[in-house]
Amino acid sequence: MPTTTAVPGGAPPPPSAQQLARGEGDAPAPGRSVRRYRPEDTRAGYAFVSPWLLGFVALTAFPMLASLYLAFTDYNLFRAPEFVGLDNFADLFTDPRFLQSCQVTAVYVFVGTPIKLAASLGAALLLNTKHRGQGVYRSIFYLPSLIGASVSIAIIWRAMFIDDGVVDQIQQLVGLPAGGWVGNPDMTMPMMILLAVWTFGAPTVIFLAGLKQVPTELYEAAEVDGAGPVRRFWSITVPMLSPVVFFNLLMETISAFQVFSSAFIISGGTGGPAGSTLFYTLYLYLRGFQDFRMGYASAMAWVLVIVVGIITAVLFRTSRSWVHYTGDVR
Amino acid sequence: MRRQTGTAAVLAVVALAAAGCGGSGQGGEGEDVVLDFAWWGDETRAERYEQAVALFEEQNPGVDVRTSYASFSDYWTARNTEAAGGALPDVIQMDVAYLAEYSLNGQVAPLDEHLGETIDVSEIPESLLPSVQVDGQTTAIPTSTNTLGTLYNADTMDALGLDIPEDGPLSWDDYDALLTDIAEAGAEEAEPVYGASNYTTVFWLFQIWLAQQGKALFDGEGGLGFDEADLAEWWGRAEPLYESGAFVPQQQLDQIEGADAIGLGVTASETSWDNFLVRFSEGAGGAEMVMVPPPADDPDERGLFLKASLMLSMASNTDHPEEAASFIDFIVNDPEVGEIFGMSRGVPASSAALEGWEAEGLDAQILEYEQSVQDYVSPAPPPAVGFGTMEAEFARIAEEIGHGAVTVDEGVDQWFELAEAAMAG
């Protein structure tokens, strides 16, 4: 689907591995024998990257440029695109379903992402303690992420939250008002957020790696100074971990904007009930491939790129005040 | 030197890989002609098409038919994408909802030159032909006709102690009252039974209701044949029925995916396509169904129509128009194909496909129903640009009204706005 391939373009380069490791690796010392530049090296280099380069140009760069052009046209897949200037963008902001999709996506991103990050940090803290069989637990916690983005999980999720599904039966057991979540417009968003939170394995693994990097001397020193576990968490773990938190926050925010397959499957491709799972990308898809309004869909894709870009820039700017890199001169 | 050889080798591999992507389906002289054929439907239809295709290949050595199928909405997503790339399968199943778009944009070929030659239409009633013509050209051939009927689950009605009204159509208000009676009686069952699912979501039933008042969905001149007040009145019928419990709550309906409320015994009545009798009867409920004409306030003004359905069109990008045309003719007219499908597609459009076999059971019930309403049918709405979108949005907005997410008036405004954009193309 070329329209969504445009979206990853909004992603900024993630912090480098060096930043993640809190600047531990110094720049490599220049080699003693400097080889002379040889043009055939360059040629061989291009030859080796050519499979990737062809894929990038044909499957990413070209479709992105095409969708940028189409965003300014009226194009219904059949007829040649007709240039309409900014009409598509103007139409967006008077389209009630577009505004609804923005609202649905915003709730999902701004509520779901913090919950997911908190859950994954909590899991990482638990998995970082020394226990027997910790490796097994780590694998188990990571398991949902391996299958989380897949179609099968969304299908199972739907089956669990439907009328008389597992969740409904548990609700009946404990005497809560019965009813499946799938058909209830008020409950679909919590259900979608739960699905996202449940697949917290990837950020957990990154948090865990970050926790392992915190020098134990710091904790020992703090303990000697009389700091309790809470104080140690807020004064050592959190600042030492802040680059990892920042990295996870960026990646999870960007991917939350792009949620599609789970919403598509759970709502049967409609964004229902009552538009409560009409995520941005789902509406984009419906506009493009159901109503054939490819120009409109392309405009939506570019609005998303711009919005994600702005949010990323804002995050980077605020990060200066709360992300600490060891070795920073402050 | 060695380095350059390496470079050349890498490039060669890339070139080979690229060539492999291109593929080539072009057969040389003397090789089999390959026809691609795509259709929407379910597994039972797949089995029937496989049998029909096997029969065609047997009778036409040298032609190889490759089939693929999907559900209705996935089917059109795939076709639309292929159409944009000029790579449609040679023969595609077509619906009146998309015929105008595909014809006006030249995606499907006019079949006029094949009519009377390869494709025999002499056994198809002439009244059906306007539904497959766009701008005076025939661009699809209907395999069958169907019309709407009101179905009752006889077992449920029996259990609730209610009679099925089999003497002519009920008035709309009487039908609504019956649905309410069903719901009142059904509320005491272990699994509550409702009257029906919201019938105001059905675009085609709206056409019937309009036709009963001398109006229509389209005015025949590229515009709509009704106004906001008509639609508001139609959608307004739903509210009291939700309040009385006659309609299944939309919330419950949204959770029944891939199954039918009446088939599951959740409702006792539905108004739907007559060929769905097979699907409903064979659903999880497995009940006996009775089919009667849809409601009408004046029994002489039924507003019914025979819809040309499950049409076949030929892609204009096909390399084998002759073979494609003879395949279309075979599926439409061959009596053995007719027997394979029975009435699962509706009643065959071509009477040739009905020869030499007797309809039995559910098939006979459908045939009988369609013959019983034949005197009351008026012409079906012609193909119109944007029909598919209008139909989909009609159902969606009606459902949102059912959820209480929008009011009737807001919904009417939204639909007219979307319909006007869809008609503009």
Helix and strand run of chain B: HEHEHEHEEEEHHHHHHHEHEEEHHEHEHH
Q: Which CATH architecture of chain A?
A: Orthogonal Bundle
Oligomeric state of this protein: heterodimer
Distance between the termini of chain A: 46 Å
What is shown here, in short?
The complex is a heterodimer of chains A (330) and B (425). Helices cover 66% and strands 1% of the residues of chain A. Chain A is mostly helical and 330 residues long.
Notes on the protein architecture:
The complex is a heterodimer of chains A (330) and B (425). Chain A is mostly helical and 330 residues long. Chain A has helices at residues 2-5, 17-20, 39-70, 87-92, 96-127, 134-148, 151-160, 166-173, 188-198, 201-213, 216-224, 229-257, 261-266, 280-290, 294-322; strands spanning 73-74, 82-83. Chain A has a single domain (96-330), classed as Orthogonal Bundle (MetI-like fold), CATH 1.10.3720. Helix content of chain A is 66%, strand content 1%. Chain A starts with a helix and ends in an 8-residue tail after the last helix. Residues 10-29 of chain B have low confidence and may be disordered. Chain B has helices at 2-22, 43-59, 72-84, 96-104, 154-159, 172-186, 203-212, 228-236, 238-243, 250-253, 261-264, 276-281, 321-333, 335-341, 361-372, 387-403, 408-424, and strands spanning 33-40, 63-70, 91-94, 133-134, 137-138, 141-146, 148-153, 269-273, 289-292, 304-305, 307-314, 347-348, 377-378. The longest helix of chain B is centred in the first third of the chain and has 21 residues, at 2-22. The A-B interface holds A 40, 43-44, 47-48, 50-51, 54, 76-79, 96, 158, 162-163, 179-180, 182-185, 268-270, 272-275, 289-292 and B 3-4, 6-7, 10-11, 14, 17-18, 73, 76-77, 80-81, 83-84, 101, 105, 107, 250-255, 257, 389, 392, 396, 399-400, 403-405, 414, 422, 425.
